[in-house]
């Protein structure tokens, strides 16, 4: 059964959660960026960009789908009427 691991957050916090989720996954599975990229179907450059402290926007939905499938996790993305984007991660 999926359990929520984070509360709904604003976009900046959501980016930090995504970055931390990816980093923890790579560390837990002893993967470098290239190995993770191969596993989830992205390039090493894409993984590097997503993990970068300079990342200022959430990735495209297709990228999130690949990450979720490759990491065996779930994410809920919501956009409210004002355009605010939030992200919730699940395991």
Describe the structure.
- The chain is of the alpha+beta class.
- It contains four helices and two strands, in the order ααααββ.
- The protein has a domain at 11-73: 434 Repressor (Amino-terminal Domain).
- It has a two-stranded antiparallel ribbon.
- β1 and β2 (85-90) form a beta hairpin.
- α2 crosses α3.
- It starts with 10 loop residues before the first helix and ends with a strand.
- Mean pLDDT is 81; it is low at 1-6.
Protein traits:
alpha+beta, 4 helices, single chain, 434 Repressor (Amino-terminal Domain), 91 residues
Helix count, DSSP H or I runs of 4 or more residues: 4
CATH class of the domain at 11-73: Mainly Alpha
Mean pLDDT equals: 81
Distance between the termini: 8 Å
Helix content: 40-55%
Examine the secondary-structure arrangement and name the CATH architecture of the domain at 11-73.
Orthogonal Bundle
Largest sheet: 2 strands, antiparallel
Strand order of the largest sheet: 1-2
- The oligomeric status of these chains comes to single chain
Instruction: Give the number of DSSP strands.
Output: 2
In short:
The protein is built from 4 helices and 2 strands.
């Amino acid at each position: 059964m999926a359990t929520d691991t984070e509360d709904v957050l604003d976009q900046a916090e959501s980016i930090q959660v995504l970055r931390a989720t990816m980093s923890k996954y790579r560390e837990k599975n002893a993967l470098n960026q290239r190995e993770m990229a191969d596993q989830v179907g992205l390039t090493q450059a894409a993984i590097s960009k997503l993990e970068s402290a300079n990342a200022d926007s959430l990735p495209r939905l297709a990228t999130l789908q690949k990450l979720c499938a490759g990491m065996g996790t779930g994410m809920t993305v919501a956009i409210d009427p004002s355009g605010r984007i939030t992200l919730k991660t699940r395991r």
